[in-house]
Amino acid sequence: MYTTRELYDLDHSIAGSYLAAFPYPWEALSGIKDLILELGSTLGDDYTQPAPQVWVHKTAVVAPTAYLGAPCIIGPGTEVRHCAFIRGSALVGENCVVGNSVELKNVILFDNVQVPHYNYVGDSILGYRSHMGAGSLTSNVKSDKTLVVIKSKEEAIPTGRKKVGAMVGDFVEVGCNSVLNPGTVIGRHSNIYPTSCVRGVVPENSIFKTGGIVVAKNEKE
Question: Element (H or E) spanning 183, and its range?
């Protein structure tokens, strides 16, 4: 439930063929910068370059107070709102919303992703039509600075990386003011209650409730 193909429909990102080469999505994090540079040189006349190694589609809307750090790609129809801070190595897909005071760093946002209000997303991959509620964050470094391990009930998978945020599957809804701890994986079509502290693997089609209780969406209460 945490492989790349189990989490994401790769047809909904220009990074699809790149991600397809990795069994687990966190393995792709180290190459996002180089991927953006490679893709950027092929984008053509539909994109402008307001700064070196920054590509913005002509149909995207970028607020004058937003900061676009290199390298980054802003896809068609995407809106980057006031005071957004894109630090670099951010691949933002089609029809996304990057909201006010949102910070992105070393991320892939699939098409139709919304991070609309006061979000931090770092060293993470957000799947098609996923949405992060206001104030929800990815935490990408453990407090003891040790390497991140992906932990489920069945196994623990070392990532070999100090910085891993969250792997968020397609159609996931993350409630307001939630924290996705380092190495969190959320399966497709799952929902996270507001103000949750999430860690480990949340199965697809699940609801993560207050107190860390996880139930299947079709489970009667």
Answer: none
Burial class (CB in 10 A: 0-12, 13-18, 19+), 120: buried
Using a CB cutoff of 8 Å and minimum separation of 24, what contacts does 53-56 make? none
Q: Is residue 221 part of a domain?
A: no
Q: Give residues with Cβ within 8 angstroms of 219, minimum separation 6.
A: none
C-alpha angle with apex 17: 15 to 23, nearest 5 degrees? 100
Could you write out the DSSP letters of every residue in 120-146? EEEEEEE-TT-EE-TT-EE--B-TT-P
Does 49 fall in a domain?
yes
CA distance to 37, 107, 115, 149, 189, per residue, from 145 (Å):
29, 20, 26, 12, 31
Closest CA to 203 of 193, 220, 221, 191: 191
| Tens digits of residue pLDDT in 64-100 | 999 999 999 999 999 999 999 999 899 999 999 999 9
List Cα–Cα distances, 151 to 49, 154, 186, 200, 202, in angstroms: 41, 8, 12, 5, 10
Domains of the chain: total: 1
Domain range for 34: 4-216
Domain of 189: which CATH number? Answer: 2.160.10.10
| pTM attached to this predicted model | 0.96
